Amino acid sequence: MSRTDERKRLEELSWMGYQRKDGRLGIRNRVLVIYTVKCAEFVAQKIVERADHLDVELIGFPGCTDNQYAVNMLISMIRHPNIGAVLAVGLGCEYIQPEWLADIATKEGKLSHWVFIQKEGGTQSTIEKGLAWVEWSLKQLQDTPRAEMRLKDLVIGAECGGSDYTSGLAGNAVVGRFYDKLVDLGGTAIFEEIVEAIGLRDMLVNRGKSEEVRQQLSYTYDKMLDYCKSVRQYSISPGNFAGGLTTIEEKSMGALVKSGSRPIQGVTKVAVPPTKPGLWLLDSTPDPYWMQFGITNPNDNEGLMDLISCGAHIVFLVTGRGSVVGSAVSPCIKITGNHATFERMAEDMEFDASLILTGEMSRDAMADELAVHVAEIASGVLSKSEAMGHKEFYIPYKYQDKNIPPKACEQ
In sequence order, which residues have a C-beta less than 8 Å from that of residue 106 and are 6 or more positions away? Predict the structure, then answer.
């Protein structure tokens, strides 16, 4: 098949999405139950468990005190195009008030409700009231307008986790080639993990689309390096060494290849969707001066949530060593370039890119297969993590500049 025919084939892939009132399209139509403090987690979790429905999901923030990063994250999930309804559950004395979140959902044109456990009479009463509202909202969402979607309408995020020697040669390489195709079709690709670009400053900066973007990339890289030095943490682990990686720079090369080869459109921040299609770097490193408010990417799910907060309909988790996690709000597709890992963890791993290493398939052909799989998931086919109920999330305390208000999510 010629490249022209390949492109036409990908352009013609289509499915029906969910039309939101802000004009965006979602690939899922979910009810999001949010707890606003650790004390409300049990009640929110029981509401989700008793609803026992694939499209009812749980996220939350455990902290009592103000944290702009967490506030922005929760608001971005409410505004996400995969979400159709929101129930906010609070205890009553925490900083993040559920009524604020419900009001934002209402302004976004989404079904919303909120409850205070202290006002409802306690655990069981709140569970019953919350469950009744969730069941009502699921029925209402059946009438959500539908609209045709194509690959160009998607925002896709990519994260590495448990890398080995195959990650840079196959797993991330396939994602990079897919990203090139997605961007060429008019879609949006987001890569992150700036802490896995150590040693590659020039390679990263020179890909900026303009001088302004190159300055952004330069600042982001330098800030990351200062951050890593200050907390004495670098993104390499014993598992990476066991998987055949030998240096931070080697891991960095493998991590950066998932961004593909197209010019970088700009640098975005957590909970701030890209302003236009193209390839974007997500800067998730905490802003300077308040390092005590958390570290970047303490686990894979924090990184996945950062990507989803930028509007990613689907997220990739590329792993040579293997992983079992999924993600809340957006489906997670787990990709490996290690065939032994794919066979050993067939229950969880979803896409085997190892045929690149054996020469049985080219990167182009493999990327086309990944594109077809993405379209299937976008059309409603469940990813393996979704089917098993893996919907992990992680929202920590982290310092984010208050000059980036929640409204910045509005694109």
Answer: 112
